[in-house]
Amino acid sequence: MQMTMRWFGKAYDSVTLAQIRQVPGVTGVISTLYNKLPGEVWEQEAIAALKQEIEAAGLSLAGIESVNIHDAIKTGAPDRDKYIDTYINTLERLGQAGIHMVCYNFMPVFDWTRTELAKLRPDGSTTMAYDQSIIDSIDPNDMSGLIERQSKGFVMAGWEPERLSRIKELFAMYKDVDETRLFENMKYFIDRIMPVCDKYNINMAIHPDDPSWSVFGLPRIVTGKEKLQRLIGLSNNIHHGVTLCTGSLGTNPQNDIPAIIAALKGRIHFAHVRNLLHTAPGKFEEAAHLSCDGSMDMFAIMKALYDAGFDGPIRPDHGRAIWGEVAMPGYGLYDRALGAAYLNGLWEAIKKMS
Ligand code: DNO
Fold first, then answer.
1. Per residue of the chain (354 residues), what is the pLDDT tens digit?
2. Residue 77 in contact with residue 173, Cβ under 8 Å?
3. Distance 353 CA to ligand 1 centre (A)
4. What pairs with residue 106 in β-bridges?
5. Known catalytic residue: 318?
């Protein structure tokens, strides 16, 4: 595995590449062209500039998170082929630039969802939290406002104001899309992009839905073992794989993550590993990465990845805000650096004992 950290680019991130370079054991970053909306073309020059900037800092560009999917593709709209062609074009350019892993998601309307971005914890840190009863009591039109008000001025990944200003239109697009249709539309997309992935050896890593159940009545299909197996079954092509995100799958305490890892062996192309604490049904907060701080057994998760022969990029995920750092919620330097060191420690121990 290659330990990495997510970096949003110097125009958006409070963390610098120079800081990431000093986190022991971190050799790469996962980045994106953060200003690109779904459906936009990625210029070759912009991709090359991103890569050069990262390499000049002594790190590698280990993959892209995300190249986002236009809603026309997810809903199977009549103009989806136009957007798939653009997507293929972007993959081609990424492949030509030597990038071999692309993370994306197939969540309708909203990407990951939280109700609180700075919940105070007993140790004085703040963290992101979710409460289903809040989601049940608010109008989905108010959701982006709720996130924006708490984001400390940072643009939150997946919560682009340009796209969400059209929320009514977006909801209307999904009116007739149920789980079956979403699976069909995903298969259509996968079948069309696999040839370019073969040509450039690009691993596509779909991100699970977060939380792993339907929100605001929208269908969600990347939620647990059975659905992930069905999803992988959409194509035998090895380039069709997943991002194993423990924080997303772990929102449902019924999800046995080590068992999911074993079931997806060979198809996990990217891993997001973090812990969270369940406080009541449908209610959780993001913990520090250590097992002792949350509800998950992080050793068992890392061991399952090791046993499955995982060799892709991995990254610590959302961190708490600690030591007074002001950063994009979930993406400060300090707690993620602690997370990376911890995950590297677990990995070293597992490796030496195996
Ligand atoms: C949030 C992230 C997601 C993820 C996308 C992948 O912090 O985990 O926004 O990057 O769902 O496309």
1. 999 999 999 999 999 999 999 999 999 999 999 999 999 999 999 999 999 999 999 999 999 999 999 999 999 999 999 999 999 999 999 999 999 999 999 999 999 999 999 999 999 999 999 999 999 999 999 998 999 999 999 999 988 888 888 889 999 999 999 999 999 999 999 999 999 999 999 999 999 999 999 999 999 999 999 999 999 999 999 999 999 999 999 999 999 999 999 999 999 999 999 999 999 999 999 999 999 999 999 999 999 999 999 999 999 999 999 999 999 999 999 999 999 999 999 999 999 999
2. yes
3. 33
4. none
5. yes
Does residue 245 carry a catalytic annotation? yes
Decide if 94 contacts 47 (C-beta within 8 A).
Answer: yes
- Kind and range of the H or E run holding 240: strand 240-245
For ligand 1, whether the C-beta of 111 sits within 6 Å is: yes
Asked if 206 contacts 104 with a C-beta cutoff of 8 angstroms, the reply is yes
Active site residue 240: no
A 10 A CB-CB count for 170 gives: 18
Spot the catalytic one: 131, 209, 210, 317: 317
- Residue 66 CB less than 6 A away from ligand 1: yes
The conformation of residue 321, written as its DSSP 8-state character, comes to B
Count up the domains in the chain and report the number. Answer: 1
State yes or no: is 103 an active-site residue: no
- Which residue out of 272, 334, 335, 342 is catalytically annotated? 272
Cα separation, 158 vs 163, whole angstroms? 9
Catalytic, out of 318, 334, 335, 342: 318
Residues in CB range of 92: below 8 A, 6 or more apart? 196, 199, 200
Bridge-partner residues for 5, per DSSP? Answer: 29
Expressed as residue numbers, the domain containing 225 is: 2-353
The residues that bridge with 61 in the sheet, in sequence order, are 29
Q: Backbone phi, then psi, for 123, in 5-degree steps?
A: -85, 5
Cα distance between residue 47 and residue 134, in whole Å: 40
CATH of the domain at 314: 3.20.20.150
Q: Is 317 a catalytic residue?
A: yes
What are the backbone dihedrals phi and psi of residue 71, each rounded to the nearest 5 degrees, phi first? -60, -25
Alpha-carbon gap, residue 288 to 231, rounded angstroms: 30
- At 221, the amino acid letter reads I
